[in-house]
Amino acid sequence: MDHCSTCVVRNRAICAALGTDEVSLLGKMGRHHKLVAGQTLIWEGEDSLLVANVIDGILKLSTSMSDGREQIVGVVYPSDFIGRPFGSQTQYNVTALTDAHVCTFSSSDFDRFAREHPDLEHKLLERTLAELDRTRRWLLLLGRMTASEKIANFLIDMSERLIRPDCSFNGPANAFDLPFGRQQIADILGLTIETVSRRLNDFKAQGLIAVPSRRRIEILDRDGLETVAENASQ
Amino acid sequence: MDHCSTCVVRNRAICAALGTDEVSLLGKMGRHHKLVAGQTLIWEGEDSLLVANVIDGILKLSTSMSDGREQIVGVVYPSDFIGRPFGSQTQYNVTALTDAHVCTFSSSDFDRFAREHPDLEHKLLERTLAELDRTRRWLLLLGRMTASEKIANFLIDMSERLIRPDCSFNGPANAFDLPFGRQQIADILGLTIETVSRRLNDFKAQGLIAVPSRRRIEILDRDGLETVAENASQ
DNA sequence: CAGCTTTATTGATCAGCATCAAAGAATAGA
DNA sequence: TCTATTCTTTGATGCTGATCAATAAAGCTG
Lengths: 234, 234
Description:
The structure is a homodimer of 234-residue chains. Chain A has 234 residues and is an alpha+beta fold.
């Protein structure tokens, strides 16, 4: 059966690089998967057997140390691509943060197909370059920013990314639900859960944000938040 | 004139994806540049006008905050590719750490040429994926490791990468010259120069390394260093 | 090789964030 | 609805790494 013709991310995922015939060819190699929140699709260090497109839901990419310290190294949304093509290992865990739907392919099938379809590889290249840019900016955040700066930048970043569901981008959202708990925010920012909680409350006290429920954030003073994000001292 | 036929990185740079005719075609679009140590080739945020291959020398990619805090987000070696194809801006500075030779192309020329040569794009994709993996591992280092762990990992990483000049990889080197001063090490690891200096001396006192001159490192006890790298407490 | 500049080391102190601990909400399940 | 569990907040304390400051060593230049 051909899921692709009804796929909601058909025109946003890398599949958009393909014509109708080619999509159905790729579609024959793909398999739908349902993931429940918390379920891990790919384990760090395991032989890289599959890659996937995210159809629905949000997933995290994470690595951890032997004593349990964890760092989230990426977050993927509907239409994003998951996995490590042309490589023998995936170096991070891929875990669903919400219930999710993904369309998986065997790595070897996908690699072969991609090599035969330059437009697909090109789309993949553009995505990978953009992700590299994003990841490099995160290095500055992790290496050089204070806790307040990290959290302010995180909130601004989220306000710009979390409007995806309806796809139409009309400026950053000032109210949104985070797909993360406090511990996950800490794992993204290289902080502890306590520090995240405290700084978030500081922002609330300063009137920069409101936190009507655990995961909901309302930005009340975006300029103020941006000032903190640039330089906590000013 | 055709530099490519005598280019020392001809078979290691992305150009290796091309046949003789195509290389000379690309070569006609390229220009040689000499850079002196400290010279900046591309500025953060500037319109992305050029990309390049590194022929000789070592360069850093860095971003900084308005108050001067800096984070090095990448280091490139001979045969590596520099710049942001298919994008309007380069998000980081590219600065020579040593005197260097690069082969530059106008972004638009390169983009056009690449789109016409899938094998070249494929090489670029493989490099970009590998660089993304490396950068993501660095997130764990910056976000979750202690100063000692950071420095131990850094030294091990350097011992594995700095043997490039002669190209033949026969295991990690136990003695090498860093292409960085202490401040640059600090900017790579998200530390201060003082902390780098102190931890390096600790390692010396523990007999893990020797530092015969400022930039020279000799690993005396690799296992010990690896133990520190994994988990400072053990 | 003298004098200057840059870079690195060493020491003292401080602050930010982590850690440890406990109480308080929210959520889920019976 | 009540209870058990999980997640979050809040408080007290301590440590790691930053900051400030001064000295020392290494490179440069003439």
